[in-house]
Amino acid sequence: MKISLAPLQGYTDWVFRQAYDKCIGGIDEFYTPFLVLQNSGEIRTSHKREVEPFVERNKSLVPQFLAGSVAEFQFFETYFSDLGYKKMNWNLGCPFPLVTRKKKGSGLLPFPEIIKDILENAYSGKIDLSIKMRLGLEEKSEILAVLDVIKQFNIDEVIVHPRIGKQMYKGSADRDYFQELQNGFNKSMGFNGDISTLEDFESLHAQFPKLNHVMLGRGVLKDYWLPAKIKGIEIPTVAIRKKALRNMHDEIFSTYASFLSGDTQILQKVKPFWEYFSAHFEEERKVFKGIKKSGGLKKYHEAVAFAFQQNIKE
Ligand SMILES: Cc1cc2nc3c(=O)[nH]c(=O)nc-3n(C[C@H](O)[C@H](O)[C@H](O)COP(=O)(O)O)c2cc1C
């Protein structure tokens, strides 16, 4: 069973992925948050940093992209294969109206004919392709015609987050519908969505004993040892875990400080990190409040010191 880390724009950037791999471990495959091609025909520097191996040389990294046309798809396949990647992941799940209105992300799911056109005329097969998708934009049945298209092509696997786009993150991942999708589908289908505890995983595994890929998102950000628990690896003691959390924070902080300039820029990156990270502490809310209201780096470091004086959760 492969355990991968879901892409979370703003949270699982290269700084996070690298620190996690170094300080915690247990993830078999990482996905970048989606890359986009700007109107100018270029990729933002921050997006390039996600994949160009300036720092990160993680072999299990799968770059993800948004594409709504043959030209965009071809651009990314060439870009990633020139960089030496062996796999890439097409995002057919993003639910944000700014994206879906342009017929990208889950906005492509009601248009299986466009998906077919792109696969037929853009995908050369130079790199393995996987697709991360929701069930639909407006209706969950939209996925059925899309899977019929996907079946016709040489695609490595699909990873399904069983919600529709217009739901955003409301409700829960629809496991029963996921089960229906597997009937008659001839490729590997990974599962993603709402796996936050070992119990969540165990009930998923009981329902889908043959599942070979589970992609974890917010659950890992709130419990760094979730992958280890799932794999049955012994969890380190509280003292060792607290030290690992401290290392993780310090690694993230020092990496941002090494290439960003000024307190404001650094704080803009490290504060969101604590939105999930503070879930490791018993005084979760107090810890996060302290970080959130810290105005400059001096106050920030005081808030971090306060956090690490607290107990971490068992
Ligand atoms: C803040 C945020 C950013 C996200 N960014 C991406 C992204 O760049 N690409 C993508 O495919 N999914 C993205 N997702 C969706 C997650 O990868 C995942 O499908 C979703 O959170 C459900 O899994 P989870 O319940 O395990 O978190 C994002 C989700 C959140 C909450």
From TrEMBL:
Source taxon at top rank: Bacteria
Cofactor(s) needed for function: FMN
Enzyme Commission number(s) from the entry: 1.3.1.-
Binding sites annotated in the UniProt record for FMN: 64, 132, 161, 217-218
Domain DUS-like FMN-binding: residue ranges: 5-284
GO MF annotation list: flavin adenine dinucleotide binding; RNA binding; tRNA dihydrouridine synthase activity
Any Pfam family the entry gives: Dus
Matches recorded under SUPFAM superfamilies: FMN-linked oxidoreductases (SSF51395)
Active site (UniProt): 94
Keyword tags: Flavoprotein, FMN, Nucleotide-binding, Oxidoreductase, tRNA processing
Similarity field: Belongs to the dus family.
Described function: Catalyzes the synthesis of 5,6-dihydrouridine (D), a modified base found in the D-loop of most tRNAs, via the reduction of the C5-C6 double bond in target uridines.
Protein name: tRNA-dihydrouridine synthase
Organism: Labilibaculum filiforme
